[in-house]
Task: inverse folding
């Protein structure tokens, strides 16, 4: 294989590459946050009016620890009763699996073609 | 067998091209241990407790041990490959030699983002801790944490800029103190020294598995936080005096230390703090070991754990800056990123441009995103990296079978660790999907876009054959 001579990259072109990479990074990580699509939030399904430790499902030891931490039944209400919702659809699960598998497939396929060039140039016919 | 022998003393002190130039080789096994444990130990001081919130205290323990198995596989696989591919960049350099350039580019980015996000999470925790200390010492207003977050990141970046030996010696000392604080809290609260305050049975009563078994699966997401970063030991490969000995020893000693620390941490905190409080790392317990010390009634323990938490966050952020900058530097040196980043400081022999460049990136996330989101970004990058590792070791053994090159360490039972690791990664992807599916898809979408950018634009600047720097024979099948 003929030796590949890469073009020399100018300073401005290097700067553009860095800006593109940083913009993509910040976008990928912050866009879900800005669109309020990030992470599962907890919610209280059945609020308790005039809460007591018993009504919040706390025994005497659990209640004593909450009080030692500075909580009252009122201030601990949301902390104790809020729960995640783990329900999901089969469609969403399938989309996730397809995205992950497609990603690794893409990686391995492109990497393999690039790797063959590297080995061919490094070792030649040896 | 190739002439090259990674285990020979002749190779010690040499750069990746067999030359004496490059980063300074001054580190020993204790520094490798400090780098790995130093990055991770903060995971016992904060963040792991989100696993309690996802499934309850028992679920967090199960996640702790299954994540421990996952990371034991990571450490075994990593020790074999990195004791043979002894160059800066760690898994990035491994991927470059074993899988191919695009995979290497992606792995390099996983490393940079996992460590930079972890660094941001550490700075957030340090800022929180300082605000708590201010309140405890009589300050009545709302302390602005942002100056402290900025100060932490800037100070540690400066330390990294000045030299690796001072940086990791600093890490060795503060990591040892942070680990001793966990041991002391365990001895003091479990009844071994004085009266015990553990009440596991009463605190778990009625809340054994609040979400059932799906909660156990969901806990695996944050179960990774107990150990995330131990694989960073490989980043020191080009700066240790004897990579074939120091890297496996430091890495495997590190994972053993963390398995003990993680189990002790769960035992201490779950026996004192109610699970709903413990499991909410934003509105409840941000620093659970510190909160446990506060309930112990001992001022000495409160201060010891306060310093332990602060030291753990500093050690972790310090190690993260070290590792992220090495990965960024290595990619710049290979022109996977602009070559400007591939410079070594003429006096301090550190990758100073990479160190400086990553400071504002860390600040953006430390100042602009909530803790659980920052942790999730870090975990997702780590998870993608761990999924690459089984593929990496299988290809490594296939392309260079045992006996074709000399390995510093050979991990046993191959391919069982690779299969176990891949299975546990699959389970963790499902756990992440249960709560943070949008971020997962957004992040993989990002990696697909930058991969296309790399393949069709950036790769033109890369010298094909020069990327392969290990003096190995031609891989089998090519």
Result:
């Amino acid at each position: 294989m003929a030796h590949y001579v890469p073009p020399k990259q100018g300073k401005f072109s290097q700067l553009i590459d860095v800006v593109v990479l940083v913009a993509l990074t910040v976008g990928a990580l912050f866009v879900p946050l800005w669109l309020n699509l990030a992470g599962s939030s907890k919610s209280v399904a059945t609020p308790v009016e005039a809460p007591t430790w018993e009504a919040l499902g706390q025994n005497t030891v659990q209640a004593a620890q909450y009080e030692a931490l500075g909580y009252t039944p009122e201030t601990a209400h949301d902390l104790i009763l809020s729960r995640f919702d783990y329900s999901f659809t089969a469609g969403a699960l399938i989309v996730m699996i397809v995205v992950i598998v497609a990603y690794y497939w893409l990686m391995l396929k492109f990497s393999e073609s690039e790797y063959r060039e590297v080995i061919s140039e490094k070792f030649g016919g040896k | 067998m190739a002439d090259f022998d990674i285990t020979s003393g002749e190779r010690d002190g040499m750069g990746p091209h067999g030359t004496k130039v490059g980063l300074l080789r001054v580190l020993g096994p204790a520094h490798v241990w400090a780098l790995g444990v130093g990055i991770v130990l903060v995971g016992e001081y904060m963040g792991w407790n989100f696993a309690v919130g996802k499934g309850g205290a028992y679920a967090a323990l199960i996640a702790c041990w299954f994540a421990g198995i996952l990371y034991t596989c990571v450490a075994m696989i990593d020790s074999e490959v990195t004791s043979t591919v002894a160059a800066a960049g760690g898994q990035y350099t491994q991927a470059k030699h074993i899988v191919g350039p695009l995979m290497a580019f992606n792995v390099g980015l996983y490393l940079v983002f996992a460590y930079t996000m972890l660094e941001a999470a550490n700075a957030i925790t340090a800022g929180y801790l300082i605000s708590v200390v201010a309140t405890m010492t009589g300050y009545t207003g709302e302390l602005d944490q942002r100056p402290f977050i900025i100060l932490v990141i800037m100070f540690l970046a400066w330390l990294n800029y000045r030299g690796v030996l001072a940086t990791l010696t600093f890490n060795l000392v503060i990591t040892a103190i942070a680990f001793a604080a966990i041991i002391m809290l365990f001895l003091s609260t479990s009844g071994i020294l004085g009266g015990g305050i553990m009440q596991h049975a009463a605190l778990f009563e009625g809340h054994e598995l609040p979400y059932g078994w799906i909660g156990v699966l969901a806990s695996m997401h944050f179960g990774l936080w107990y150990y995330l970063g131990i694989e960073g030991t490989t980043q020191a490969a080009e700066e240790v005096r004897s990579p074939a000995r120091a890297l496996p020893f430091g890495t495997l000693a590190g994972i053993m230390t963390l398995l003990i620390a993680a189990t002790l941490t769960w035992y201490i905190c779950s026996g004192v703090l109610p699970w709903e409080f413990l499991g909410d790392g934003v509105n409840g317990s941000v620093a659970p070991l510190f909160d446990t010390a506060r309930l112990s009634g001992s001022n000495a323990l409160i201060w010891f754990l306060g310093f332990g938490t602060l030291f753990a966050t500093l050690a972790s952020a310090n190690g993260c800056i070290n590792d992220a900058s090495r990965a960024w530097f290595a990619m710049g040196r290979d022109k996977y990123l602009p070559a400007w980043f591939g410079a070594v400081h003429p006096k301090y022999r550190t990758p100073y441009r990479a160190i400086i460049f990553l400071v504002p990136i860390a600040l953006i996330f430390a100042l602009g995103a909530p803790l659980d989101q920052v942790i999730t970004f870090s975990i997702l990058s780590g998870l993608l990296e761990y999924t690459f590792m089984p593929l990496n070791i299988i290809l490594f053994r296939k392309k260079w079978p045992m006996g074709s090159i000399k390995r510093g360490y050979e991990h046993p039972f191959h391919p069982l660790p690779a299969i176990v690791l891949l299975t546990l990664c699959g389970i963790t992807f499902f756990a992440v999907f249960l709560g943070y599916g949008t971020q997962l898809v957004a992040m993989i979408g990002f990696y697909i876009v930058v991969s296309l950018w790399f393949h069709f634009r950036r790769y033109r600047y890369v010298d094909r054959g020069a990327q392969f720097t290990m003096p190995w024979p031609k891989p089998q099948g090519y």
